[in-house]
Amino acid sequence: MLRIIIAVLMMMTTLTTKAELIVLASPQSNDPYYAEMVDQIFDFHVSYAKKIIQHGDQVLILTDQYLYNDYVKVLGKDHVVIAPMQDIWIRDFSSSNPNTPVLFRYTAAGQGGGKKGQVNSDAVQSKFKQLTQRAGLKFHYSNLLNDGGNWVDDGVGHVVVSTKFLTDNKISEDSARKKLKALTGLKQIAFIDADEQGGLEHADGVVSFIGDNTLVINSYPEDATYSQKLKADLKRGLPDVKIIEIVTPYDGSQIYDQKFGSACGLYTNMLVTPQRIYFPQFGIKEDSIALQQIRALTKREVIPIQSNNVCHMGGGVRCMSWQLRGENAQTLLQYFKR
User: Fold this and answer.
1) 161 with 181: CB under 8 angstroms?
2) What does the alpha-carbon distance between residue 183 and residue 101 come to, in Å, rounded to a whole number?
3) d(CA 74, CA 72)
């Protein structure tokens, strides 16, 4: 009997550790910047959170006291906490590299650029740090400037970062490699040019790991020169990488803020967990093609997430998601007594 009990407990522990904790941040109810988009962001969060719960991962939405009841009404108290952040793009100012998390200094570009942008970025990240320190989360901390959207890793030592990291930190590629390997224990790093220069220049709008050293990238039929350079840079940094192009019907016709562009039609902005892929959909004909392509490439469960109501703001599934696993996930859940 004792052996059976131990076996059951071990099984329960395994199931818990396989579940990813995905944290979303709502806009604050009095934030004028998001005033026109509060309802659309709410709808996206609710639809996304329901899919996360349905498929066996865990979700928490951080919100303020004024929006708390709205979220609780549709998701229940187990998935909503009053812990307001100062921005919705929690990917960028939170920890990168979920297996061995590191917290970089959030860049000015995430808040519009310039000296004022850096002041605002530091304030946004300070609010996040206060929460994580109270909760007792453990990260490696770094003064190197980088956004979470500019860190795409496969969880086993390979990462892609845009060359904006080099510019922001006034550092050579060789020196950056040494520093990042020492900080995170990485094996290989590829530095790529972003497909749009200026602004955020995030790698996660260009590439996504869907397996160990296996990358999905945007297709660029209209820019063969960039496409060739992208592949060459990836191969140079990740010599054994497998590269697969995915349909990319980019749509920049509607943009909420010219500083940040659009993420509409960018399927590479998917959220990849050890067991699942939360895959953006945009209400266009290419959705089914992209879904078929990605399902043929991975054994992970692929879950479509409608993103057309927020993608024109410059992000979506991955950009809005902070990933935690292992001890940090359990610590944060325990902090909120969930």
Assistant:
1) no
2) 10
3) 5
Q: What are phi and psi of 190, to 5 degrees?
A: -110, 130
Quick check: 6 pLDDT over 80? no
DSSP code of residue 39: H
Beta bridge mates, 115: none
Q: What is each CA distance from 327 to 13, 78, 101, 304, in whole angstroms? A: 12, 19, 11, 28
CA distance 128 to 310: 23
Question: Sign of the CA dihedral 31, 152, 278, 138?
Answer: negative
291 vs 214: CA distance, rounded Å? 17
Sign of CA dihedral 218, 196, 253, 124: positive
Structure tokens that stand for 242 in this block = 């497998």
Residue with tokens 């229940």: 76
- What is d(CA 248, CA 231) in angstroms, rounded to the nearest whole number? 16
pTM exceeding the 0.90 threshold for the entire prediction:
yes
Q: Is the pLDDT of residue 113 over 90?
A: yes
For residue 254, count CB atoms less than 10 angstroms from its CB and return exposed for 0-12, middle for 13-18, buried for 19 or more.
Answer: exposed
User: What three-state secondary structure class fits 239?
Assistant: coil
Tell me: the pLDDT tens digits for 133-156? Answer: 999 999 999 999 999 999 999 999
Of the candidates 150, 158, 240, the residue with the CA atom closest to the CA atom of residue 195? 150
Sheet with 301-306: list strands edge to edge.
271-272, 276-281, 301-306
